[in-house]
Design goal:
By secondary structure, the chain is an alpha/beta fold. It has helices at residues 2-24, 28-32, 50-66, 96-107, 115-121, 138-147; strands spanning 41-46, 71-76, 110-114, 133-135, 152-154. The protein is globular. The N and C termini lie far apart (59 Å).
């Protein structure tokens, strides 16, 4: 019985030392935190209409100004898809399509529309700008990007 206790204590001590060493060692995360420019991956979640879209698109422009290497995906569902509809304009009269096209071409930003939203709102692909892509479920795509692809999550 005493030998089993000693073995358990030794195993626990070894695990603690390994854990402490892992915490003390500089890793990939520490190296990336040194500056604002790097291959960050970020998903922006749009679900609340045109005002949120305007705020979010401004956030993305600011994000790319500081970190042009960031990989950004916008996932839109519910009222968040409205800015991607043909002919939509912001409060200043600027076409959202022009802003989206610029962010896609210059910053590599991807824009994804939820197919469930289209079905529930009886909308068709033809109503949306060609710069947008489609995913089966917006919330499922956000979850996939966060947990499987390790994207940071932002909701303007």
């Amino acid at each position: 019985m005493r030998i089993a206790s000693l073995r358990a204590a030794a195993a626990l001590s070894l695990a603690f030392v390994a854990f402490a060493a892992a915490l003390a060692a500089p890793g990939k995360a520490a190296a990336q935190a040194d500056g604002p420019v790097g291959p960050d991956q970020v998903v922006y979640h749009f679900s609340a209409g045109l005002e949120q879209a305007s705020d979010g698109l401004r956030n993305i422009r600011n994000h790319l100004e500081v970190n042009p290497k960031a990989k950004i995906v916008v996932v839109a569902h519910a009222r968040g898809v409205d800015f991607l509809m043909k002919g939509q304009k912001d409060a200043s009269g600027n076409r959202y399509q022009d802003i989206v096209e610029s962010l896609k071409n210059e910053g590599g930003v991807s824009f994804q529309i939820c197919e469930i939203t289209l079905r529930n709102r009886k909308l068709k692909h033809e109503q949306f700008i060609e710069e947008a892509g489609y995913v089966p479920s917006g919330v499922a795509e956000i979850t996939r990007l966060q947990f499987r692809e390790h994207y940071a999550y932002l909701k303007p």
